[in-house]
Amino acid sequence: MKNAYISGTGGYVPPQVVTNQDLVDVYGIDTDDEWIQKRTGIKARRFAPEGIGPSDLALEAAKAALESAGLQATDIGMILFATLSPEHAFPGSGVLLAEKLGLCDGKATFVGAMDIRNQCSGFLYGLGTATSMVKSGACNHVLVVGAEVHSAALDLSTEGRAVASLFGDGAGAVIVSATDEDRGVRYWKCGADGRFADVLCQKVWDTRKRPFMDVGEDGYARVAPEMIWAQMDGRQVFRHAVERMCLGLMEACAATDILGDDIDLFLFHQANMRINQYIAKQMAIPEEKLVHNIDRYGNTTAATIPLLMAEAERDGRLKPGMKVACIAFGSGFTWGTAILDW
Ligand code: UT7
Predict the structure, then answer these.
(1) Packing angle between helix 273-282 and helix 33-40, nearest 10 degrees?
(2) Could you tell me the distance, in angstroms and rounded to a whole number, from the CA of residue 157 to the centre of ligand 1?
(3) Per the residue annotation, which of 141, 150, 240, 269 is the catalytic one?
(4) Which of 3, 70, 126, 138 is the most buried (most CB within 10 A)?
(5) How far is residue 78 CA from its own chain's centroid?
(6) Nearest-CA neighbor of 18 among 31, 7, 1, 8?
(7) Which domain holds residue 190?
(8) Arithmetic mean of pLDDT, 154-181
């Protein structure tokens, strides 16, 4: 059986930097830089301009990942697109990306494009799925993307500050490829606990209702504020995140018969610097084995880990031969872990 390894990485963030102070000055939110930095570690985030969706950001990240793998888009056997902010209810962002990559024209391959709806853990769900597809021989190269345009759906007012100050836009992509070399994804595991589905959610509509939104006589739908904007019990998410991420790491080490000390680099989901520092402390992980981007980008949800991979590779922090641990937790609750020999 072939091994599945990451042959290329790419990241893209839109150019507009929104600092914590910009949330006050530009959007008029009653918040301050000190509060946000102290509680989350976030200094700034990026916002995409109107007219740009997650598949546009994903396109840039995918092109960079293909280039770093030395591949053409037509070499891809499957697209897995993780996002919680797809352009539309349907179809998914994966098909939009396939078309933008030129996979639906004359010389097209018309490969499959699947959307993954697992929020902050979406990328690791995708990495696990891609690994299985490559190992089974179904595909030689799978494009896994995490991309988000959060800025379109943030309540950028004082009422929404508890959520709006946390999230930013961005995309990360990797190519998962087959190899005969003794390297690649050694372990992956995903988990879910739907008892906490309401703790972090954005409902927008409810298909149990008839019709699924309140439609007025004028034909326009009315959506209540608590349905439009993401709802989060931050403290509960924080508590569960710390517990699940520590447990996931311990399970991964036990399953692969390694010690925490054997891991060269930890790529944690970037929801809150305090969550990651707490886990690092609990697991005795030295700071030099961690990489972050939450300070610059905020929480980019499905994009956090592939963006970290692309940046760490570019900066020389992530090199062939390194043992890497990835872990994410978020809405659902869902979580994922992976151990790779890079
Ligand atoms: O990737 C998705 C997973 N998400 C997470 O992992 C998030 C996990 N949770 C967290 O990171 C933290 O719970 C938060 C950073 C979201 C919040 O920190 P906290 O220490 O739990 O604060 P809190 O929500 O309990 O709010 C404390 C106070 C409140 O005021 P009162 O009620 O005490 O008067 C909030 O209204 O801070 C207020 N507050 C703010 N103040 C200034 C909330 N957001 C802001 C803000 N600026 N942006």
Answers:
(1) 30
(2) 15
(3) 269
(4) 126
(5) 18
(6) 31
(7) 185-197+230-341
(8) 98
